[in-house]
Amino acid sequence: MSKEIRKNPLEANLHRRTFMKGIAAGLAGAVLPVSAADAFNWDSFLQKHFKEMSDEEIKRVIERLEKEASLEWKKNIHISATKALPNVKFGYGLDLSRCIGCRKCVYACVEENNQSRMPQVQWITVLRFKKGEKWTDLENSEKYYKPKEVPEKDFFYMPVQCQQCENPPCVKVCPTKATWKEPDGIVVVDYNWCIGCRYCMAACPYGARRFNWAKPNIPEKELNPEAHYLGNRPRYKGVVEKCTFCIQRTRAGKYPACVEVCPVGARKFGNLLDPKSEIRYLIENKRVFRLKEDLNTEPKFYYFFTT
Amino acid sequence: MHGKGTAFLMMIVTAMVSFLTFSYSYVGAGEKPAEVRKDDIPKFFVPSPPSSENFPCSKCHQFRAADKTKRKLQEYHTTVELKHAEEQRWCYDCHEGDKLKLQNGQLINFDKSYYLCGQCHGIIFRDWKAGVHGKRTGSWDGDKLYRLCVNCHDPHQPKYKPLEPKQPPKKPADIK
Amino acid sequence: MITVLFKALGRTVIGDVRYYAWLSFLMVVIGLGVNAYMQQIDRGLIITAMRDQVSWGFYIANFTFLVGVAAAAVLLVIPAYLYQFKPIKEIVLFGEILAVTAIIMCILFIMVDLGQPMRVWHLLPVIGMMNFPSSLLAWDVIVLNGYLLINLLLVFYALGRFVQGKDYKLSLVLPLILLSIPWAVSIHTVTAFLYNGLPARPFWNASILAPRFLASAFCSGPAIMIILLQVIRRASKVEIDNKAIFKIAELIAYTMGINLFLLGAEIFKEFYSGSIHKAPLEYLYLGLHGKALLVPWMRTALVFNITAFVIFLLPKMRENFYALNIGAVLIIAGVYIEKGMGLIVPGFIPDSLGEIYEYWPSSQEIIITAGIWAFGALFYTLFAKFIIPVYTGELKIGNQ
């Protein structure tokens, strides 16, 4: 193997070593714009899956997360890890004859659950359909309607959010088990375990899941400091999130924010295992249906009509 | 002979009386006085809407003779435009004195106005008691706060008023 | 042996000015790609054009195309090892290197698509929490890495034998080869099932998806090989029989025929049945509700594929190098469009709630993608430059 300078048409002196040095310099230069972003945190990197942690470990992780969140959001956040109540399976009812499409539920949810304002994340989508026209394929829906007043004549409205399926396709496909169904029926995400592959978003038939394409942005004044680890605690860039039936409220006996704010009482919520609950009443006494039932996802979100 | 006849008569009378006693105990079975009737009326309410400045009605109506001819009022209460079965009824069909009047003549206070609405809107009344009609806040497994019908529906023009919707979501192409 | 290998390594940086120009060009593109990726690490995936409505895009499109290319290496393995078809036997090594390169590029495309790439260890069994067997992505991780391992083993085994001037021992390597054939089919079947198993996306939820994947893979991979082999033949002392190239071309004709037939079957099913599920196919070829961004691309890809099919079908045409190379380029472009953007994007159009968001990759997405392709090209170039002197016998023990 000769170490000669090879003759080339350009008659340039092209030493092998010079060439290698040039390559090395080029690669190094290309790597420079690496932002000296957040310092690397080993505890955060090595954190175990939520279901694998003992109560003690969860407590320590929450302490760390609360500290991180307080530094980040300049507010004392309280993160709870309340477990599911026994003998509870949450169900939701939506009265399509009452919904007026005012979107108050959308914004109440955004505030209660600390969703990013910029880029905008909204867990609830309200669809509008023309009365008398085909609507079960949802392609005829309109979600950007902007009339002066609602309800509009000739239209009806159908809000869609996570249906908390009993047979969730998102849980089936998640490669890291970062999303799972809790005993009380709520499908949750461990935001510290999710790798952001978005397979669950492709699998969801209801378009219920949202991705944090950028770092979430919440005005300090509007941050809700009462949070749950699996629910509305402030999230990160690059992870998936969705409606959790306001797990921080419902596990404390309260109604979800969307139920409370609906001005016409179109939203109903309760324990499917309690025969005296309002959700059981409406399933037994009204004509209920669920979206895309042919996919056998068994949603716990029931749409019904009272008139 | 007399003794046998009297005894026989006594037996018949006893049988009849027992029979009647028994049968009367089945009359009005729904109104067994021994049991408390459950009518599922809610316990907790948000504050009712404020009464009009004309309350109590007797302030003026004590000193006026009641003209029960159905007509369009010219002197007073002109802001009330009835759009609620106005062909079939008018003021005096629901109002009497300082109370509301039910079809059977019974008078109720304004804080129990749901009985009045429930006369015609029976299904809605039943749904409302179960919590399925109208807004309810509170705890899903505990006490719930109800609203009276009139909290949301103006009794003279009950159709729910349209309101301004909140902003539509941003289109995906506009999210940067 | 180590000395020989080091000498071979040294050969990778010796070449003429065209070689240096090629390497420099690739380095520049890689550098731009790395720069753009740093922006993505900093700001997040929002610099791409993907949004909630179309949550997979150009990166996954490239991934899907390249898994097919990797799987197609087996098309060369079967005749070479099993039927001892001498002309192909000689160049199967370059096919296996292509498979290795393609798998590495696939892994890179997945890594740049992740929202939290540092957490990728969560995918692993034992130390992470791999959702096997429920999640098809978990299956994909296993089969792709397994395929990479198989091919690396085969390549380095052959290399070791050539260095000693010996031919490989078929008995030793046969089990691995026999394994690699169904394994290659399985990597692409698993990737197809990844999309296929989602009832939420009716465009993908069709039984025809896995067969179409395999058919299109077995056109595009060998087409890339045809071009690479000619480059290697031109740029080095490796002898490659024309018969090998023509055989590959013949196989491509059959697989493209199957691919076109399956496309026809899909078109019939959707448009004749006329249900609402025809919407994605309508979007691709005709435009949907006035949105027609991909229509010219899809129609062009169809024309490319049909033209290439005819070229490869007629022996006179495929044995003419001019037509052959045009055909190869047409196939690569046609399948890249059809299986890349033409597969991923319509899965999301219309989305689950009926919305149509027309996705087109952002400039940074394109730059990062180009960077990964350049890295693949660089990897293949250096690997080939490393292997060729050993393969030709120029560098072997006792022959320095």
Explained architecture:
The complex is a heterotrimer of chains A (307), B (176) and C (400). Chain A is an alpha+beta fold and 307 residues long. Chain A has a domain at 2-80. Chain A has helices at 16-31, 42-45, 55-73, 104-112, 169-173, 199-203, 247-250, 257-261, 278-285, and strands at residues 78-80, 90-95, 125-130, 155-160, 179-181, 187-189, 210-211, 226-228, 240-241, 267-271, 287-289, 301-305. In chain A, strands 10-2-12-11 form a four-stranded mixed beta sheet. Chain A has a two-stranded parallel ribbon with strand order 1-8. Chain A has a two-stranded antiparallel ribbon with strand order 3-4. Chain B is an alpha+beta fold. Chain B contains six helices and six strands. Chain B has helices at residues 2-26, 58-61, 91-94, 114-120, 122-130, 149-152, and strands at residues 44-45, 95-96, 99-101, 107-108, 137-138, 144-146. In chain B, 10% of the residues are buried. Chain C has one domain (49-361): Up-down Bundle (Formate dehydrogenase/DMSO reductase fold), CATH 1.20.1630.
Write the layout of secondary structure elements.
The complex is a heterotrimer of chains A (307), B (176) and C (400).
Chain A (H helix, E strand, L loop, with lengths): L15 H16 L10 H4 L9 H19 L4 E3 L9 E6 L8 H9 L12 E6 L24 E6 L8 H5 L5 E3 L5 E3 L9 H5 L6 E2 L14 E3 L11 E2 L5 H4 L6 H5 L5 E5 L6 H8 L1 E3 L11 E5 L2
Parallel strand pairs in A: 1-8, 2-12
Antiparallel strand pairs in A: 2-10, 3-4, 5-6, 7-9, 11-12
Chain B lengths: L1 H25 L17 E2 L12 H4 L29 H4 E2 L2 E3 L5 E2 L5 H7 L1 H9 L6 E2 L5 E3 L2 H4 L24
Parallel strand pairs in B: 1-6
Antiparallel strand pairs in B: 2-3, 3-4, 5-6
Helix pairs in contact in B: 4-5
Chain C lengths: L1 H10 L5 H27 L14 H26 L2 H4 L2 H22 L22 H28 L6 H27 L12 H27 L6 H32 L5 H7 L9 H19 L1 H4 L2 H19 L1 H7 L15 H29 L9
